[in-house]
Amino acid sequence: MATYFTKDHEWVRIDGDIATVGITDYAQSQLGDVVYVELPEIGKELKKGDEAAVVESVKAASEVFAPISGTVEGVNSGLVDQPAAINEAAEGAGWFLRLVVADKGELSGLMDESTYRNFLETL
Amino acid sequence: MTMNTQGRPTSAGEASVSAIDTFTGNCALQQEEALIFEIGRHGTTGVDLDEPEAFTPRLGKLQRKAPLDLPGLSEPEAVRHYVRLSQKNYAIDSGLYPLGSCTMKHNPRLNEKLARLPGFGDIHPLQPLSTVPGAVELMAELGRWLIEMTGMTSVALSPKAGAHGELCGMMAIKAAIEARGEPRDIVLVPESAHGTNPATAALLGFKVVTVPARADGTVDPEAVKALLSPEVAAIMLTNPNTCGLFERDVVAIAAAVHAAGAYFYCDGANFNAIVGKAKVGELGVDAMHINLHKTFSTPHGGGGPGAGPVVFSNRLAAFAPLPFVRVGAEGPVLVEDEAELQAGETPFGRMVAFHGQMGMFVRALSYMLSHGGNGLRQASEDAVLNANYVRAGLRDVMTQPSGDRTCMHEVLFDDGFLEGTGVTTLDFAKAMIDEGYHPMTMYFPLVVHGAMLIEPTESESKASLDLFVATLRDLVLKAKAGDIARFREAPRFAPRRRLDETRAARQPKLTYERPVPFEQAAE
Fold this sequence. Notes:
The complex is a heterodimer.
Chain A: E1 2-5, E2 10-15, E3 18-23, H1 25-31, E4 34-38, E5 45-46, E6 51-57, E7 61-65, E8 70-75, H2 78-81, H3 84-88, E9 97-101, H4 113-121
Chain B: H1 36-39, H2 75-87, H3 109-115, H4 118-121, H5 133-150, E1 154-156, H6 162-180, E2 186-190, H7 196-203, E3 207-211, H8 221-227, E4 232-238, H9 250-259, E5 263-267, H10 280-283, E6 287-289, H11 292-295, E7 310-312, E8 324-328, E9 331-335, H12 358-394, E10 411-413, H13 425-434, E11 441-442, E12 452-454, H14 462-480, H15 485-488, H16 501-506, H17 518-522
Parallel strand pairs in B: 2-3, 2-4, 4-5, 5-6
Antiparallel strand pairs in B: 1-7, 6-7, 8-9, 10-12, 11-12
């Protein structure tokens, strides 16, 4: 399973045709305590860069963008009642949604983990 | 995702436990006060009412099934409850209130005296116009002052506050674009803007495109030109901006916006810096709201309602909403209805049921007339002088995001000077509460990390500013010396310690729940 990152601090993990999407640990640390999450409907078709979810912390509301195009196949509905899971494990149990990947070619525009960590150093 | 990197911590820190060690929980003469439902009892009343005679109710199914759960208090209990609550207020009447971009200036008592004159205080918006010519004349005179000060063409007095005024101005722009039959749906907003600017544009269905700020915190006309297109309806710009800086290229920005067929909305939140110094109409502004409750000294922040009149350039003047005052040969006339319109008057509709905040109109005009044109100009000059006095007093110990340069009516610091101390902007602000000051605006504008925006206003004396500057200098020295507890545990002496914002947001309790249900308690 390969994990890719966007410069907007989303991560996407590829397992066959399924992509799991979340926000990075850096993103959760900048947001602060997350208090509210809005997830997309199952079956929704997202294009790369579309608003996929909304995450709200005590200090700000932010949109989470789809890192690649695809159809929403599942969402982490547990986040709605336990948004703290995003702060506890942003890159694991705090995942947002799963997509059926439309075009794996889009992955080539994303960063791998070491490139993303280097990118964070520049911020 | 969209990322907000202002650097604000959101945890409760080390200070969420109360440390008052008294039997009552009171801290000397600062008394704890319970909710009115907790101190009230059924059957107690401050008014002696006769028992009603026997009657047959005719309410049918609408009749109340359970007794009304209202707290009963005697008159002294009710008086004490509200007086104690009022004593927990911090207000401009109790001390310096340096909240940036809020212009918390003194509310002159003369304004209050005039607003209470029966001819203004006792009138009703539904009484015949023929009985209130003085009120209409006052609205016309206030409008004339606002138009004169801004160099604009028409005014809408009715918007109730700043964001409502923004909505009014942008609705006029939308109406003007629709009248031209053009499909323009983009609004440009600089990243340092008040959050209400993009919210207003989005509410009206516009797409918001962000204009990046220059390194010095101002807007680059070239960046605006690069974003202009036949789809752009308007730019919303705050001037002076939220970094406390005058947008020095505002004329070039306005020219570019107009050349592209778009309109220029100016957020007038910071008008207090430029009254009598610059006419926004001459800068190319097409619409701007004016916060009477900031610039013109009417009470705000819990002390009274806002009022946000909007002035329009000749490009938008005809779209000003109903009601408006038309000044003609027969004197001022309040135009309330579409049937009364004359040629060339094309209001986009109306925003409120009545005429606006009449009480605030009286106070604002009282402020204008008591100061006069030269007095208003001096107030702006003193506001700018005071902000720069604070800047000069703190520049060697605090850090400014775009270098040490003359500011307008507010001075912006970042958290660079706290780096490595373990103290955040939030901790610093909370420590100010312990020193008896309302904190400055913090973490805004968002483009500055750990921002602290200080607006002293012209109301403060040199002695007041000296004490404020000395207090902040003492705090900075303590932070740099490693006295962390003073900050991390702050506020230490307030009636409540630091609040747990996260828990308040995750588990909000918005209604009072009786420990024992009312029906059982009543039996």
